[in-house]
Here is the input.
Amino acid sequence: METSHIEHIAIAVKNLKESILFYENILGLKCYSIEEVKDQKVRTAFFKVGQTKIELLEATEADSPVGKFIEKKGEGLHHIAFAVKGIEDALKEVESKGVRLIDKNPRKGAEGLDIAFLHPKSSFGVLTEFCEGKI
Ligand code: CMX
Here is the structure.
């Protein structure tokens, strides 16, 4: 498979507005987009750092992947997303190598990207995402 770069690093936060202030006022980044992804029950805020983005994730419902994660582990690193070429083939390839997939087929994520998750139990405790689309 061909993995070009880290597309984004996602961080689960309790309060999007408060955490945006840290990235803007302390790290000097600029939030360029806030978007709700209904399917994932999250509100996201994006910052560009070179070719990679930071994605802040706030749960819109307690009973959601990010809501459950924060309840269990608290705020912090939630997942790492790799930009891949040919996401469907990449999923088939890693599955054939014994990796457990959360998504067997890509779905639409934030910024219109095609996304799919690998299970964290198959990737040393780090939830891993593949994505493909515009940079
Ligand atoms: N990173 C590492 N481990 C994680 C995790 C994460 N982000 N989220 C859950 N886990 C672990 C839990 O700690 C738990 O481990 P233990 O069994 O050792 O306690 C295990 O996975 C199961 O977790 P759970 O709380 O019982 O939750 P579920 O099994 O119902 O769901 C998961 C876990 C990963 C399958 C689910 O969160 C998922 O489908 N995630 C992918 C989608 C997603 O995260 N969407 C939000 C962001 C979307 C976006 O960026 O737009």
Notes: Helices lie at 16-26, 65-73, 87-96. The longest strand covers residues 2-13.
